[in-house]
Automatic annotation (TrEMBL), chains A, B:
<dbReference type="GO" id="GO:0005829">
    <property type="term" value="C:cytosol"/>
</dbReference>
<dbReference type="InterPro" id="IPR016185">
    <property type="entry name" value="PreATP-grasp_dom_sf"/>
</dbReference>
<dbReference type="Pfam" id="PF02222">
    <property type="entry name" value="ATP-grasp"/>
</dbReference>
<dbReference type="InterPro" id="IPR003135">
    <property type="entry name" value="ATP-grasp_carboxylate-amine"/>
</dbReference>
<keyword id="KW-0547">Nucleotide-binding</keyword>
<dbReference type="Pfam" id="PF22660">
    <property type="entry name" value="RS_preATP-grasp-like"/>
</dbReference>
<dbReference type="GO" id="GO:0005524">
    <property type="term" value="F:ATP binding"/>
</dbReference>
<feature type="binding site">
    <location>
        <position position="190"/>
    </location>
    <ligand>
        <name>ATP</name>
    </ligand>
</feature>
<dbReference type="GO" id="GO:0006189">
    <property type="term" value="P:'de novo' IMP biosynthetic process"/>
</dbReference>
<dbReference type="InterPro" id="IPR013815">
    <property type="entry name" value="ATP_grasp_subdomain_1"/>
</dbReference>
<feature type="binding site">
    <location>
        <begin position="152"/>
        <end position="158"/>
    </location>
    <ligand>
        <name>ATP</name>
    </ligand>
</feature>
<feature type="binding site">
    <location>
        <begin position="266"/>
        <end position="267"/>
    </location>
    <ligand>
        <name>ATP</name>
    </ligand>
</feature>
<feature type="binding site">
    <location>
        <begin position="182"/>
        <end position="185"/>
    </location>
    <ligand>
        <name>ATP</name>
    </ligand>
</feature>
<dbReference type="GO" id="GO:0034028">
    <property type="term" value="F:5-(carboxyamino)imidazole ribonucleotide synthase activity"/>
</dbReference>
<dbReference type="Pfam" id="PF17769">
    <property type="entry name" value="PurK_C"/>
</dbReference>
<dbReference type="InterPro" id="IPR054350">
    <property type="entry name" value="PurT/PurK_preATP-grasp"/>
</dbReference>
<dbReference type="GO" id="GO:0046872">
    <property type="term" value="F:metal ion binding"/>
</dbReference>
Length: 361, 361
């Protein structure tokens, strides 16, 4: 375990939402402390972190003080301002590294990177402006989807172009931000691979999960996913290829469309991923501990699946179902401690567990 | 869920050691916050609790302030000073309740309580003084073991009397504290039942584990324990009898000696128990979440076992083995974040997991 941090070291986490919260809990299991940096007050991770800094990413003093207390820095979201990263990376290691952030922060860079790796993506074209959109629509044609290059999540910053006449409205939805036009892909279903790469380069992937979205937000992830043996192998190999190309350290979520022409990479997320929450009840070492192990330089853990799981997100007033869910013997309920159940807000999730029909550990 | 606390409520925990730490983590999983009360500085639970009060149990102001911030109070150890409990119970519910503490804080009261329930215990006699010891030795005879009535743990406050001439030295080891003489029990092995009782009276027991001690400290717990079907049933029934008699709310550890004449109750602990740590990797809902569910008035969870587990405590310089243990695929490592690995100090534990040969869920 060269370069491994000893138990008791402090892990800095940028972002204090539910992912930061569950990373913090996983870190504690291995004896690490966490220090969470988050602009908003009373974030979910603050209830379980050892330390919390409430400051903006523009607050250089706060960032410096934060870096001074931690041994390594990780993050729960990819849209961290570049200026903050520039400041922090001079002070402490940031894992996953800058290259993964640079690629995944920008849809155009990401798609180009994936294509250069020889992986399939949806057809795409740069849309810097109105003229660019006209050109892009000639190359790709409607129906297609216009997306901001940066800062999109959960379906935000996207507009469908079903026919060419939708183009002006879609462009104005971008509010002047640089955009990318993506062609529609005809796929039977979406799966994701939660992949981890350790500091010494070893890669380990969790069993792919099958995702269903509602209103642009992940609704359920089911393991095992509907994949034949060769697709399953392809999914794992292409995820490994991405992680190795980036010399990645940590857990990454890789979303894939399943098509008759093979797997198409939809998106990569350089962090623990909502579609990996099933691992909390399906594996000995879950995605959160796997990420912590990777970034502190410990060996990756055993991510083999011992149960079939359906993860369902609890969104907004799904919270009203919690009293019934905690009575059900097959349900493991995970709640994020958020005080207000706004519509569209991820409040928790439930893992429905079945003994695996195909045990693989 | 009458009287159930809503997610987001705050649970007060007396004691900030590893049990308080793991209770705190389990509470966070269900969206609860925790406030830990602990006299020593930098206790393990403080790294994961939402709030920490560092004060003595004699500090009435601190206890009152603590009670003011919480919705229910629980504890990780049974030897809480009575004066603190008297103060707190007027302010907030304490679960498990006072009767369980009264019984388990005093070995004589506990043994009498168990006997009155019709359960088997080791032969015992009250030893208020030297004359009492002489009388007790006539009733029970050597070899036997003299124990302080209160404040014993991990083999402390105990002295063996192998022959009558050992009596004076044993008595002086008690340092004037009221004691109890216990006869030796000839048993093949020790098991423990981790039992839970909910606020509405339902009882759920985890599968009994088999315990091996070293130097008076728990070394390993193995599930399944060596018990035949009838012994397994007896173990669960007698644990339920104890919990029901105390109108208990929460998780209790019940240690049993297995003898040809049946199961003999060694000791009860009104809290989560070291011999229940295997549940973290063997069950969907572990002993810590089960305890939290009980004390907040939620339904008990699914404690069925899905794997065979050997839990081993990591004590003192066992910490040197951690780099090797985290490489092993069958090991789930749990560390407590204690800074100094003193001899005899519980630093963590490892759960070695095997798919169950006798799945029961």
């Amino acid at each position: 375990m060269t370069d491994a941090l000893p138990t008791g070291a402090t892990i800095g986490i940028l972002g204090g939402g539910q992912l930061g919260r569950m990373l913090s809990v996983a870190a504690s299991r291995l004896g690490f402390r966490t220090h969470v940096f988050e602009p908003s007050t009373n974030p979910p991770a603050s209830h379980v972190a050892d330390q919390i800094t409430c400051a903006t990413y523009e607050d250089a003093d706060a960032l410096r003080a934060f870096a001074g207390t931690v041994d390594v820095i990780t993050y729960e979201f990819e849209n961290i301002p570049t200026s903050a990263l520039d400041l922090l990376e001079d002070l402490k290691p940031i894992r996953p590294g800058r290259e993964a952030l640079r690629v995944s922060q920008d849809r155009l860079t990401e798609k180009t990177f994936l294509q250069d790796l020889g992986l399939q993506t949806a057809p795409f074209a740069d849309v810097p402006d109105a003229a660019g959109l006209e050109q892009a629509l000639q190359d790709i044609s409607a129906p297609s989807i216009l997306k901001t290059r940066r800062f999109g999540y959960d379906g935000k910053g996207q507009a469908r172009i079903m026919q060419e006449s939708d183009a002006p409205a879609a462009l104005s939805d971008m509010e002047g931000a640089p955009a990318i036009l993506e062609g529609f892909v005809s796929f039977s279903h979406e799966v994701s691979v939660i992949a981890a790469r350790g500091l010494s380069g070893e890669v380990s992937c969790f069993d792919p999960g099958e995702n269903v979205h509602r209103d642009g937000i992940l609704h359920t992830t089911t393991v095992p996913a509907r994949l034949n043996q060769s697709q399953r192998m392809d999914a794992v190999l292409l995820a490994s290829k991405i992680l190795n190309a980036l010399e990645y350290v940590g857990v990454m979520g890789v979303e894939l469309f399943v098509t008759p022409q093979g797997l198409i990479v939809n998106e990569i997320a350089p962090r623990v991923h909502n579609s990996g929450h099933w691992t909390q009840n399906g594996c000995t070492v879950d995605q959160f501990e796997q990420h912590i192990r990777a970034i502190v330089g410990w060996p990756l853990g055993n991510g083999q699946r011992h149960a079939d799981v359906i993860m369902e997100n609890l969104i907004g007033d799904d919270m009203d179902r919690v009293p019934a869910l905690v009575k059900q013997a097959d349900c493991a309920v995970h709640l994020y401690g958020k005080s207000e159940a706004k519509p569209g807000r991820k409040m928790g999730h439930v893992n429905r567990i079945q003994p695996s029909k195909r045990p693989n550990r």
